[in-house]
Amino acid sequence: MKYIEQKRNIDFVLSLIGLIVLSPLFIGIMIAIKLESRGPVFFKQKRVGLHQSHFNILKFRTMRIDAPKDTPTHLLSNPEQYITKVGKLLRKTSLDELPQIINILKGEMAVIGPRPALWNQYDLIEEREKYGANCILPGLTGWAQINGRDELPIEIKAKLDGYYIQKLSFWMDFRCLVATVLSVVKSEGVLEGGTGKVVNEIASTKEDHTKTINKI
Questions:
Q1: Which of 97, 111, 133, 209 is deepest in the core (most CB within 10 A)?
Q2: Cα–Cα distance, 198 to 135 (Å, whole number)
Q3: What is the value of pTM for the model shown?
């Protein structure tokens, strides 16, 4: 697909510019992390990339070094015990995701695409395979991210990723980017743990998500 090639070129240029422009912010965050807690500045985690290959996603470290490494934060019963003060601010503003600009520059990720699954999220990987969502580079943000993010059940998330694949275009990516900025500003769709507390809410909204997708 012609746009796929254009998309990679756009991603490279945007990530290079972003890395240069945001370098002072990078340095400031790195200093803040080091001053508060011991451990590395960056957090590396094995994720699923193009065609189910694996790569190490980069994030600013927001948790203590004794935190579980291969468990999504929203599945932890009490993540607050691990999250640092600086980390809490980074998560709230999504600034912890900034190092993924490096992943994009290296060609391991795209600006827009399905969020890369953890290597052990087999159910999500399998569900995405049904919709061809493992056949493009994972993204810093994506269609599923702006339509529910962590609250979404796996089958709905995969279906939204599949919809993105079907509608893949510059306009679709632009919509995702703008909506992501608005979502970050409002701090929408982020769960920091205690998933059981919102199970009833998810159950009640799951049908609404499905109806919405079927109407698209």
A1: 133
A2: 32
A3: 0.80
